[in-house]
C-alpha cells in the first residue's frame, strides 16, 4: 500500500487532497470546502450535478462510468463541447432538473445508485452535508473558483476527480496542460511595455444569456492571461458588468472583441443606431474581432483558453507569430476532450475572424 499526499493551494485556503494508490484501499480527499470525504474504494458509478460539474468530470473521464445526468444537460449540445463530443450522455437517466437556481434531487440521484456525487451546487458545508445525509452517498464539492479559466480551484477539482475515479494520470495530464498554456501566454506577454499595448474591450459577453455591446467584464480573466490593457479596469469592478454605452465612446479602445454569443444583438443594435458604432475607432479602423462564446452552464474552459490565444494573436501579432489560433484551438479541444472541434464551433458561431457590422 502506497500513500500519497499532495498539498494544493488555491481558492479560500490551502487545501489538501489525500488518497491511496491501491483500488482496494479507502480513498480520502478534502474537497473544495475543506470537507474530508472517504470512499471504501475508487468510484465506478458517478453523478456530477450543478453548473459545470459534468464538464470537469468529462475532462478527466469523458462519459465513462456516469450513472445519470441532469435534465438541463439534455438540451442542445451546441456551445457545450463536452456534450458535443459525448452525445451518449444525454441518453442517461435523468437525476434532476439542474440549473443554477435548482437544488439537487436526492430521490432521483438515489435511483441510479452512484458511488459518489460530484457537485458545484454547494456553497457551504451545511448544504453539502445535508445532501450527503439524505442520500448516504459521499458528496464531493468541486469549484471553478472566482475566475474559472486558469483558476487553481479548477486544477484542484480535476485532481480530486482523478483520485476518486482512479484516473490520476489523466487528471494530471489535463492539469499540466492547462498550467502550461497559462504559463505560455504569460511568458509571451508579461514583458510588453504598457505604452506598446493597444487599449481593448470585450463586448456582448454572455452572462446568463446573450447581451449587447455594453455587456463586459472588469478584471477579465482572458485579458489578464495576456496582460491586455482592458479599458474597463478603470472602473475598479470585477466580473460581469453592464456599462453605459456612452462610456465606451469615451474610452474609445483601439481594438474591440465581440463575443459571438451576443453578436446578433450587436448587429441588430447597429441597424438601429449605426452612428454610435461608426464613432468608435475600432469600428472605423477595422479593428473589431470575434471571440467564441464559452459561457454555457458556466465556463467551457477549453473554449476560453482557445479565445485567449486568439486575443493574444490579435493584440500582439509578433509575440504570437508562431501560433495558428485555429490549430491551437483544436489542440486544446483534443487534449481536454479527446477530439478536434474548432471547425464545428466555427460553423455554429463564426470562429475567429474580423467582424463587420454592416
Automatic annotation (TrEMBL):
Q: Which Pfam families match?
A: Peripla_BP_2
State the name under which the record lists this protein.
Iron ABC transporter substrate-binding protein
State the organism of origin. Answer: Clostridium thailandense
Q: Which domain of life is it from?
A: Bacteria
Ranges of residues in domain Fe/B12 periplasmic-binding: 45-319
Family to which the UniProt record says this protein belongs: Belongs to the bacterial solute-binding protein 8 family.
